[in-house]
Amino acid sequence: MSQGSTGGAARTQAGRATLLTGIAELTTVDDELGVVPDAAVVIQDGVVAWVGQESQAPACDVVQDLGGRAALPGWVDAHSHLVFDGDRSAEFEARMAGQTYAAGGIKVTTGATRAASDERLRALVAARVADAVAGGTTYLETKTGYGLTVHDEARSAVIAAELVDEVTFLGAHLVPDGMDPEEYTDLVCTTMLSAVAPHARWADVFCDKGAFTPEQTRRVLDAARAAGLGLRLHGNQIEPGAGVSIAVEYQAASVDHLNFLSEQDIEALAGSGRDAQGAKREGYETVAGVLPACDLSTRAPLAPARRLLDAGATLAIASNCNPGTSYTSSMNFCVGTAVLQQGLSLAEAIRAATVGGARALRADRESLAAGTRPKATGHEAPIGRIAVGHRADLHVLDAPAAIHLAYRPGMPLTHAVWRAGVRVASTH
Ligand SMILES: N=CN[C@@H](CCC(=O)O)C(=O)O
Ligand SMILES: [Zn+2]
C-alpha cells in the first residue's frame, strides 16, 4: 500500500494549503491508498493535494486537528427527488398498516408542488440540501418529476440547478390525471424536454407498473438522447419488468430500485459496459442503483445488492429522498442498512455510496477519462475518492473507525464535512 504522493506541491501553489491531521482511520476508497491509519490530508484550491501517513505530511499554512476521528469521502447521493411540497405521511401510515405502494401517490405531491410559489419551493429544496450536507453528502443529484406540466417541470429544473450538483429531467414520472398516456408521452418528448434540457444533464423514466410502459420508456429515452442528455432509469421497483434490460440496451448510466430482478437482469447488469473479451470498460457500464431506505419504507424485498456485486455489477447506494417512498436523505442510514440487512461489508457499502454514486453520475476519474459524461465541461475534478487531484470532499465521523456507521445505527455520527475544500458542516 503506497500512501504518500506529491507532497512538495502543497506549499507552492496559489491558494493556502490546509493540513488535516489527527485522522485515526482514513478510508480513501482509492485502490492504491486503501485505508490509511494515523493519516493526514492536504487540501489546496478545493482539491486534495496530498494524502498519506501523518508522520510524513508536509508543513502547511493552516493545520486542523481532527482529534483521532475517522474520515472518508463525502457521500455521493446519485438519486433523490427534492423538488416537492406537501406531505404524504398518511399514505406511509396506511402502508405500514398493510397497503402496498402504488405509483399513483405521486399525484398528491404533484398537486402540492404546483401550488407552491417559486420562493417556497426554493426554500424547501435549500433546506433539504442543507440536511443532506449535514449528514455527510457532498455531491447530490436531484430530479424533477412532481411538476408534470411544461411550466412546472421547467421551474423545478431551474430551482434544482441553483441548489444541487446534477439535475435529472423526470417528466416521465406519472401520467397526470385527465391526460392520455400517449399524448402525455409525446409532450414529455417534445415541448417539455426542450424546456427542461437546458437546465438538466440527465433524463430518467419511471418504467414500471402504473407509470410508463417499455414502449413509452424507449420513446422518452430516444428523445432525451437526441437532446444530448445522459440516461438513467427507475426500474423493477414494483414488479419484474423490462426496466433493467432497457437500461442496459440504452447504455444508461444507472438503473435504480431493482427489487424484482431475474437472473438475466443480474447478468445483464454485470455484463454491461464490457468489451468483446468480457473485460469491464470502467465508466461505460450501467450502474446498479440500490435504495435501502426506500426498500424499508415501502416494505419491498431488499434489492439483491450482494448478488449484484458477486455477479460483477457496479453498485451504487443512494437515498432516493422523496415524500412518497423514502423520506430521508441520510446516507449514513442507507450505508448502515446495506451492511446490516443486505450482506455488504462496510468497505463495499462505502464504495457504493461514494465512488459507486460518482460512477453512476459519470463523475469519477474513470468516467471522466473515458469521456462518458454528458455535457462535460472538461474542468471538473473527479469525485468519490480521497486521492490527489480529486475534489476535496471529506466526511469526518465522531468515531474512531467507519464501522461505527453500522455498529451504531441511527446515531449522529457526522462530525464535519468539507465540500470542494470548504468546511460546510460541523457539530462544533
Ligand atoms: N418510483 C418512482 N419515484 C419515486 C417515488 C415517487 C413517489 O411515490 O412520490 C421513487 O423513486 O421511489
Ligand atoms: Zn426515485
TrEMBL record:
Residues 71-371 form the Amidohydrolase-related domain. 4-imidazolone-5-propanoate binds at R88, Y146, H173, Q237, T325. Gene3D superfamilies: Metal-dependent hydrolases, Urease, subunit C, domain 1. It is an enzyme of class 3 (hydrolase). Its main location: cytoplasm. Belongs to the metallo-dependent hydrolases superfamily. HutI family. This is Imidazolonepropionase.
